[in-house]
Amino acid sequence: MSQKYTKEFKEAIVQLHEAGQPVSDLVKEYGVANQTIY
Fold first, then answer.
1. Dist CA 22 CA 6 (whole Å)
2. CB 31 within 8 A of CB 9
3. Per residue in 1-35, pLDDT tens?
4. Which of 2, 11, 24, 32 has its Cα between 20 and 30 A from that of 17?
């Protein structure tokens, strides 16, 4: 079963990634899958 994320949560993750935070850090910190970010 897939996890549902709010639009705001997804936008925040994308902004952090665009600001230079590595995907591996975002995965560990927020518990999301790599595919969620890409």
1. 21
2. no
3. 567 889 999 999 999 999 999 999 999 999 998 88
4. 2
* Count of structural domains within the chain: 1
SS3 28: helix
28-36, long-range: CB within 8 Å, 24+ apart, which pairs? 32/3, 32/5, 36/3, 36/5, 36/10
What is the domain extent for residue 29? 7-37
CA-based radius of gyration for the chain: 9
Q: Is residue 14 part of a domain?
A: yes
- Specify whether the CB–CB gap between 15 and 21 falls below 8 A: no
> How far is it, in rounded angstroms, from Cα 14 to Cα 8?
10
